[in-house]
Automatic annotation (TrEMBL):
Transmembrane segments: none annotated. One of its GO terms (molecular function) is 2 iron, 2 sulfur cluster binding. This is Ferredoxin-NADP reductase. The keyword Ribosomal protein does not apply. Coiled coil: none annotated. Its cofactor is FAD. Keywords: 2Fe-2S, Iron, Iron-sulfur, Metal-binding. PROSITE patterns: FAD_FR.
Length: 250
C-alpha cells in the first residue's frame, strides 16, 4: 500500500445506473492492485475543508483494456453525501483527484486461490466482488465462482451485460439475483428480501468448503453471515466488507 496521496487523472467515466457512475483513473506510479482492495479519495474545497471517503476498486488489475497504472471505481450517489454527488455528477474527464492506496490485504481474492468461491453482494456491495469476478476471468482460473446479487430492482443492477457475458465465459461465473422491491416481468420469484431458506438454495453447500466474500450494508452483512454459520459454513472462510471506510461511503 502507498500511504502517500497522489494525483489521479480521470481518463474515462460512464453511467452505471441512474444513481451510480464508473470512473476510470490513471494513477502515476500504480503498478497494479489486488481484487477486493479499495482506495481513499480526498477532495479539498476552496476554503481548505477536506473530505475523505473510501471506494472499492471495481476493475481487475491490467484487465479489461486498462493499463497497470489505471483502475476503476463505481460510486453510488448518496443524496446527503459530501463526496459522492460530485463524483457521480460533477467530475469530468481530465479532472484530477487525490488518491491514496490501494488498501487492503484480507478481503481479497488472488488468482492462485483454486478453491470454490461464493460471492454475496447487497446493492452497491457488488463493486469489490466484481473486481474478483473480473480477475477470475482474466486469469482463466479454474476455481468455481458464484455470485448471489441482491438488488432493489432490475434497473439498479450494476454491470448487467458484463455479468451475463461472464456467465458464458470459458470459466463461467454463475450469477443468481434476488430482487427486493421489483422483479423483472416473468421472474419466477416474487420481489422480496433474501431469506435464510432462499440463501441456502442459492449458495455453494458447506460440504464444498467454499470461501465466502460478502459485501453490503452492515445489517445485510451481519444477517447473512449469521445464516451461513447456522448452515454449517466455517466462520474462518467467511470474509466480510461493509459499506464505508475512513469517513463512510458517501
Amino acid at each position: 500500500m502507498s500511504t502517500a496521496w497522489r494525483a489521479a487523472e480521470v481518463v474515462a467515466a460512464h453511467e452505471e445506473t441512474a444513481t451510480a457512475r464508473t470512473i476510470r483513473l490513471r494513477i502515476p506510479g500504480l503498478t497494479g492492485h489486488l481484487a477486493g482492495q479499495h482506495v481513499d479519495v480526498r477532495l479539498t474545497a476552496p476554503d481548505g475543508y477536506q473530505a475523505v471517503r473510501s471506494y472499492s476498486i471495481a476493475s481487475a488489475s491490467g484487465a479489461g483494456g486498462l493499463a497497470p497504472d489505471e483502475l476503476e471505481l463505481t460510486v453510488e450517489e448518496l443524496p446527503d453525501g459530501e463526496v459522492s454527488p460530485y463524483l457521480v455528477h460533477g467530475l469530468s474527464v481530465g479532472d484530477q483527484l487525490e488518491v491514496r492506496g490501494p488498501v487492503g490485504g484480507w478481503f481479497v481474492w488472488r488468482d492462485g486461490d483454486e478453491g470454490p468461491v461464493q460471492l454475496i453482494a447487497g446493492g452497491s456491495g457488488v463493486v469489490p466482488l466484481m473486481s474478483m469476478a473480473r480477475a477470475h476471468a482474466a486469469a482463466g482460473s479454474s476455481a468455481p465462482f458464484r455470485l448471489l446479487y441482491s438488488a432493489r430492482t432490475p434497473m439498479s443492477v450494476y454491470y448487467r451485460d458484463e455479468l451475463m457475458a461472464l456467465g458464458e465465459a470459458a470459466a463461467p461465473l454463475r450469477v443468481d439475483y434476488v430482487y427486493t422491491r421489483e422483479a423483472p416481468a416473468g421472474w419466477p420469484v416474487a420481489a422480496g428480501r433474501l431469506t435464510q431458506e432462499g440463501l441456502g438454495a442459492l449458495v455453494l453447500p458447506a460440504a464444498e468448503s467454499p470461501a465466502f466474500f460478502l459485501c453490503g450494508s452492515t445489517p445485510f452483512v451481519e444477517t447473512v453471515s449469521g445464516w451461513l454459520v447456522d448452515a454449517g459454513h466455517d466462520p474462518a472462510r467467511i470474509r466480510t466488507e461493509r459499506y464505508g471506510g475512513i469517513g463512510g461511503a458517501a
